[in-house]
Amino acid sequence: MRTLVVGNWKMNETATQAARLAREIVDVLSMPPYRAKRSVDVVLAPPFTSLAPVRDAIAEHDVALGAQNVYWADSGAFTGEISPPMLLDLGVRYVIVGHSERRRYFGETDEDVRKKTQAALAHGLRPIVAVGETGDERDSGKTDERVTVQTRAALEGVTRERLSEIVIAYEPVWAIGTGRNCDPTEAARVIDVIRASVAGLDDVPVLYGGSVSPANFAQYMAMPRCCGGLVGGASLDAQSFALLVRIAGEARP
Ligand code: 13P
């Protein structure tokens, strides 16, 4: 199973700032001891407006481009949306779907996430499907049910062969941007619940996301079933992000 470190920049950085940050990241990653042994796939997911400049900044480097969202139609009267062919044409290889911020602030449903996942797969984009429970759901003992429902809904109708293109991220909503990261043993337990929710997920990388930092990431990478991180805040600093890549590479040489 591959190990991934994905930087989700969310709605941060202008195109000019993003190009600078991407250059800083590849510069740090090119230096020993950061030069990542390529057991780790590194993905940068800037806002749509920064995809082209980030692509240019990471060209020649072993870093992949990701998007934070996608619409399921190829083209048409869908003002403000971005299609899979548009992303592919910009060199995008991964796309985050079902992030909790999309579900919460933009009303994305499990059904939307399923359509986006299928559209991404149909075009050869690798979906990074985000699932996770809210604080209330955890407090009322609904964590396992919630991640199972979300995972099954997102992957419904995906063939066994296509599953190998999928990446899943377990992101407990209460841990995102709060500094309250999920206990790594508990994250590993939920990752197992996610893997058990759909047949054929044994070899699918499942990442952890939610207040990942250089101070706690090694504890997640010590869990054999955790395949890396989906990182928000700590991905906006070149040194911290490079450190996360290094930690992942050291844990999975
Ligand atoms: P933070 O790392 O800032 O908690 O964000 C996690 C996240 O939502 C990544 O998609």
What spatial order of strands do you see in the largest sheet? 7-6-5-4-3-2-1-8
Which class in CATH terms? Alpha Beta
**Ions, cofactors and other bound molecules:** 1,3-dihydroxyacetonephosphate
Distance between the termini: 12 Å
Task: Spell out the helices and strands N to C.
Answer: EHEHEHEHHEHHHEHEHEH
Q: Mean pLDDT, nearest integer?
A: 96
CATH architecture: Alpha-Beta Barrel
Describe the protein in words.
By secondary structure, the chain is of the alpha/beta class. It has a single domain, classed as TIM Barrel (Alpha-Beta Barrel), CATH 3.20.20.70. It is 42% helix and 16% strand. Strands 7-6-5-4-3-2-1-8 form an eight-stranded parallel β-sheet. Helix 3 links the parallel strand 3 and strand 4. Helix 7 crosses helix 9. The longest helix is centred in the N-terminal third of the chain and has 16 residues. The protein starts with a strand and ends with a helix. The mean pLDDT is 96. The site of 1,3-dihydroxyacetonephosphate has 14 residues, from strand 8.
List keywords for this structure.
253 residues, alpha/beta, TIM Barrel, eight-stranded parallel β-sheet, 42% helix, binds 1,3-dihydroxyacetonephosphate
Q: How do you describe this structure in short?
A:
With 253 residues, this protein is α/β, with parallel strands linked by helices.
